[in-house]
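Quick note —
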Amino acid sequence: MDWRAWLNGLGLHVPASPNVDAIVIAIVLVAGAYAIGWLVAGWVAPRIIAALARWAGRLEGITLRLVCVVTRYGIASLLLLIVGNSTALSPIGLMIVATALGIALAILVFHVGKAAGLGSAVASIIAAIALVAATAGTLGGMEPLIAGLRNVGFSIGTRRFSLLGVINSIVVVVVLFVVARIANRIVVHSVGRLHALDMSQRVLLQKLASITVVVIAGLLGIDLLGIDLTALTVFSGAVGLAVGFGLQKTFGNLIAGLILLMDRSVKPGDVIVVGDTFGAVSKIGVRAVSVVTRDGKEHLIPNEQLMTEPVENWSYSSRNVRIHIPVGVGYGSDLPKAQKLMIEAATAAARVLVDPKPSVWLKSFGDNSVDHDILVWIADPELGVGNVRSDILNRVWVLFQDNAIEIPFPQRDVHIRTLPTTPAPANP
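Predicted structure written out below.
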């Protein structure tokens, strides 16, 4: 097969005898474009990272190395595109520049796709498409290529499905996905910096902004892909019914999450009790609320469950929480002195509030002890209540030992009414 004739057939004119001077000039131009991209990226990339940190926070997967690669090959692609549109290049020089442009653009697209969460295979396919499109477009062979891709396909009724349409759809979806993800991150971070709003209002606004970005991206995608929505009217009822049944719980949790954020009954940072789960709310998501326990375990509780089941919110109207600490004192001990020592132990604890001040109640006269309750208030229940109880009980133990206050424990006396008679030893 004559590759020169094949390229000429595609509209890519290749001379029979290449010009060495033109080749050298093209190589120098390509090397210069890559060198400029390399130098500029080293200066620009750190500043781009700093700007992203200010406006979008820390983006997952966006590293300094990635920004350097994108900036380097982006600048090189731009310079090579300008050079490729110059009429001063010979055909062989234009081919070298076009190939270099395609390679630079393919590397750029591959790394952007990987950063956007696409797999290596998908990113490689899109990079290959970019390589072919950039090379053919620069060489003037795009029209034959487009015609060939358009001819590969099939028809269903009046609708034509071609390989060109598939490629266009992939490119549009990927570009919208990347742009929507970055835009969503920027909007969420910007809303998070509105300190005039409380945490619940910021989270609600972030959720609404995220939904808005997704809806806008979807509408743009429908418009760019040229999807005729009237063709789907026949199936819309059945599809809507199926989706409604299949995603009933999902939409229920979504609406419940928005209601929780609007009525502010549960907010990030609140300490709640749901069933057997006790912990601090770390995040209110689209589907579930994340509750972190004192053991470091993260429980994901569906939003709808918080709307339908009883919830104890220790931080709803006030963050102050009262703790009951039972203490038993022996009947032979000095009760006023013991109660004074309990107050002293509670007051000395670091997290116990001075106002309301600790108090001691005599609860009951038990079987083995005089039962008391030490009542203390704390303002940070998310840090745990068991550690406060342990701290106070340790202080009570030390003070009782130093002041001869008895801490009783159950004792049992065995009363023997009759002893068994021992039989007389048998005569030998």
